[in-house]
Amino acid sequence: MRDLKHLIYFEDLLQEANNELVRKAKEDGRLCLGYTCYFMPEALLDLPGCFATRLRAPKCTSPDMASYYMSGRTCHYGRSLLERALEGGYNFIDAQLATETCTVTCRFQEHLGYMDGVINNATFKTEFTDVPFKKNENSIDHYEKQLKIHVLDFLSREFNVDVSDEAILEAIRINNEVNDLVSAIGDFRKLDNPTITGYEFHVITLVSMVCPKYLIVDKLRETLEELWSREPDDKPNYKIKVLLAGSENDDPDFTKLIESCGALVVADRYCYGSLEARGHINVEPGDSPLRAIAKHYLLSSQCARFMEQREMRNRKKVIADYAKEYKADGIIVASNKFCEYWSYERMIDSIVLPRDYGFPVCSIEKEYINTASGQLRTRFQAFVESVELKKIQEGR
Fold this sequence. Notes:
Elements: H1 7-13, H2 20-27, E1 31-35, H3 42-45, E2 50-54, H4 64-70, H5 76-86, E3 95-100, H6 103-114, E4 125-130, H7 137-159, H8 165-186, H9 198-210, H10 213-228, E5 240-246, H11 252-260, E6 263-270, H12 289-300, H13 309-325, E7 330-336, H14 340-357, E8 361-366, H15 373-393
Parallel strand pairs: 1-2, 1-3, 3-4, 5-6, 5-7, 7-8
Helix pairs in contact: 1-9, 4-5, 5-6, 7-12, 8-9, 8-10, 9-10, 9-11, 13-14
């Protein structure tokens, strides 16, 4: 297929956390608010004079210093973030809006707040928000109060940010514009012969999360317009289509590795993916903007930390429904090593999805930094061959 006009530019933006557009927004006088989890609503971090950036650790190869503080038996993702912080890679952020969700990222964010000199920024502060483990009215009430105290009141008190309902509505509008653009781009993956690869879409999704939205939205619009006239290859260069699910995955090269083995990634139900992170936020009649945000982020999440039986069962159905919607032939479930929530989830997915929904599953455990690409390639190639054989046997 013809190369996407902005793909190389997007790739360059992902080479470092403090990328060109982040630096431009800082020069414009905007506050940079870091976060690591879907439960810290982007829409509250894009208030007037602010912008959100979801933290990553690009090019981190060996988190040796972080392992001293967090031990080698914790998730590589959290350690890689701390390693980058210790190297001075996050000195540009003015505040870290943390969530009490994943234990390892909590530890990372605690180190940011309590270790002297980790963030060399005089304005830097960290604030924690508690997130419920259930989805009901009481949970929404609690979450809304937490967001009021630990995000809105914090930003107003410490940085004099406008947190009025009008400001929140405008932030919702900005987020919805980006969310709708990314979702529309992702819809091209539903075609019988998709006109965008999983790697390209992964890059686009990440760019929309780590860059100031007001500086990236025009290029997202241009990319969507470009896709309307993009012609697919005459002969598809993939053998099967797969849905990729799992824990933190902010490495497009991991998606590229899968696709190099003949499996086109057409859906992304993982942390840092677009499903459900790029959903449209609706403000229902009678709800305040903050209430609408609390309901949207809590109820839409398919995070593995929700452990009620009905939630666990529903997550399998959601993945299966996405696989059908995007015409996937199989599902790859990947968890980061030592990820507590997703290690259980991955095991259950590998049993329930084939048994109850008929989807072949490739279950793998990986490091945040992919140093074992040879072993992963072997696993993916074997999975592609098995699914391809199954399709032939079924006459598809």
